[in-house]
Amino acid sequence: MASDLMNSALEQLDQAVQSVKVAAEQAPDAVAMAAHGVSGGAIDPFVFRLAIFVLSIFVGYYVVWSVTPALHTPLMAVTNAISSVIVVGALLAVGISASGYATGFGFVALVLVSVNIFGGFLVTSRMLAMYKKKDR
């Protein structure tokens, strides 16, 4: 029964990930077309990137809040995997930076993502421990 629940949860998580991928692929094009139409062809790259960032916040919010409680553990595992990519970017920012600001921000990002990964694994292991049978 637990394996059926886990398989169902993984299928739902996979469907959610696929819908997020589709939305993430379509969002920049939609923003670009809207901005191109409004600005008459001239658009500031900062505004374009800011609009994509704001849209990604909304997509992330609605995806996370629509996840059922049974899927929170797999969602945490995926979040940890994404955070590991951020570690690579932070290490690059610290290692090959030309200014002190990039080194500082890269170090802060490295510390924060390390805390996020460690905490995520703690929460995931604790959630998985709830599903284990207790030995008497």
UniProtKB/TrEMBL annotation:
**Entry's transmembrane regions:** 46-65, 77-98, 104-124
Membrane topology, record value: Multi-pass membrane protein
**Which cellular compartments is it found in?**
Cell inner membrane
Q: Name one GO biological process term.
A: NADPH regeneration
Highest taxon above the source species:
Bacteria
Q: Which UniProt keywords apply?
A: Cell inner membrane, Cell membrane, Membrane, NAD, NADP, Translocase, Transmembrane, Transmembrane helix
Species of origin: Pseudorhizobium pelagicum
Which GO cellular component does the record give, naming just one? plasma membrane
Per the database record, which ranges form the NAD(P) transhydrogenase alpha subunit C-terminal domain? Answer: 50-133
- State what protein this is by name: proton-translocating NAD(P)(+) transhydrogenase
Among InterPro entries, the record links this protein to: NADP_transhyd_a_C
Q: Which terms does the record give in the GO molecular function aspect?
A: NADP binding; proton-translocating NAD(P)+ transhydrogenase activity
EC number(s) recorded for this UniProt protein = 7.1.1.1
Q: What does this protein do?
A: The transhydrogenation between NADH and NADP is coupled to respiration and ATP hydrolysis and functions as a proton pump across the membrane.
Q: Does the keyword Cell membrane apply?
A: yes
The enzyme class is translocase
